[in-house]
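Title: Request for sanity check on MYO5B protein prediction

Description:
We are preparing a figure and want to confirm that the structure record we downloaded matches what your pipeline produces today. Could someone re-run it with the sequence below and paste the raw C-alpha cells into this thread? We only need the C-alpha cell string, no images.
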Amino acid sequence: PFLRLLEAQLQDQRREHEEEVEALKNEVDAMKEELEKQQQAFLQTLQLSPEAQVEFGLQQEITRLTNENLDLKEVLEKLEKNEKKLKKQLKIYMKKVQDFEASQATVPAERRQHERNMQVAVQRKEKDFQGMLEYYKEDEPLLIRNLIT
C-alpha cells in the first residue's frame, strides 16, 4: 500500500511536470512567433522612408495602447462586478446584525441577568488558588489543628 501511494504520487508529479514542460514549450513557440513578427515589421520599417517609419511606429504604439486599454477595461469590469457582489454580501450581513440586535433587545431581562450571573461565575473561577481547598486566611490555624489530629 505504501509503495502504491508513493508510485501514485510519483506519477502525479511526472504528469504535472510534463504538463508544465508542454506549457513552457508552447510559451516559447509563441514568443518565437512574436519575435519573428517583430523582426519582419522591423525589416519593413527599415525599407520605408523616415516619415513612413515614424507613422508606422505611431501606429504600432496606438495598437499597443489600445490593447492595454482593453485589458484594463476588462480588469475594471471584473473589479466592479466583485464590488457589487461584496456590497450585496455587506447588506445581507448588516441585515443579520440588525436582526440579531433586535432579537437581543427582546430577550427577557431575567435571561440577561442570568447571563451576567454566568459571567460573574466565570470571573470567580479565575481566582488564584493556593491549594485544593478554599478557606479563609483566619481559619488556617483551625484547619492545621484538625489536619494534625
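Thanks, this matches our download. The CA atoms of residues 50 and 56 lie 10 Å apart.
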